[in-house]
Amino acid sequence: MYFGDIPKGRPGPRKAVALLVRSLDIEARPRPLRDLLCQVILSEGWESQQSAAEERAESWEANALMLIKDALGKPDRFGRPSVLAINSSSDYLIQGAAFVEGAETHEGILHKSRRKHIFRLLSAMRCLSPQEFEGFCTRVIQQIGAEASYTTKLSGDEGIDFFGKLKLKNHIFPDDVAPTLQSQLNVWLIGQAKHYRAIKVATPDIRELVGSVELARHSAFSSIKGSPYPDLEILACDPVFRLFFTTGEISLDGWQLLERSGVVGMDGLMLSAFLCDRGVCQSEGHFSESEFQIWARSTA
Hints:
This protein is an alpha+beta fold and 300 residues long. The chain folds into two domains: 13-98; 120-297, Trna Endonuclease, Chain: A, domain 1, CATH 3.40.1350. The chain has helices at residues 13-23, 33-43, 50-73, 106-115, 118-126, 130-144, 203-217, 252-261, 268-277, 289-297; strands spanning 31-32, 84-86, 93-96, 147-151, 162-167, 186-194, 240-246, 264-266, 282-283, 286-287.
């Protein structure tokens, strides 16, 4: 569920829902949508009196619910996680996406027990230094299954921060005794890591990654010493996934460029959700920030 930037201009249902998405606790118990809208209206100072806020919330409720249903009803193109959900007993009851209802399946409970740590992990991720975040991105592609993954040196990295190779023979008919075709199916994962908190990633950052990968494919580097990536040898026809990871957010223009270019992008919340789903640094329903700091900084 993605609402992008807070809409500018006069207050309305869309702006209220966008603010609600940013403020609702992911484990929040079900509450009437009208009450949540009233809370947003008062906190934003759009009304100063409770009665006036309730009246405005009532007039916005139907449109706000339509916006929420529309966002939840269609899969997000990028897999951006939702932080809220509609309770199964009533369309007008809104809850956190990790709130466990009574009739949940075992798989649903497990999923929510992991996802509930999404903001804790995000906060821990943002505590990493820019250099540590690059190493963290290497750990992420290891979770995807990349082998021979590397973090480039901070100085003179020529626009590439991390890379690795995904060998598809380990994922396509991995039980074959004597692999044939799949032995040739390898994909490079090459990425750039942007440690931003208050700044949104825009299109120039993404274009920089695309250009850097193309230059690396042709061994065109500014350094007189040659390639700064001795382990990155991209053949002429090698497939490459270009990965753009950030601790912060991606602008609307940035998302549009990702969609039209084929670059794979993940903002901070997506990275956090991906690792939560893997159960990284979780034990018995708890997330350990100290274990995360060790995991993120390790190279294994």
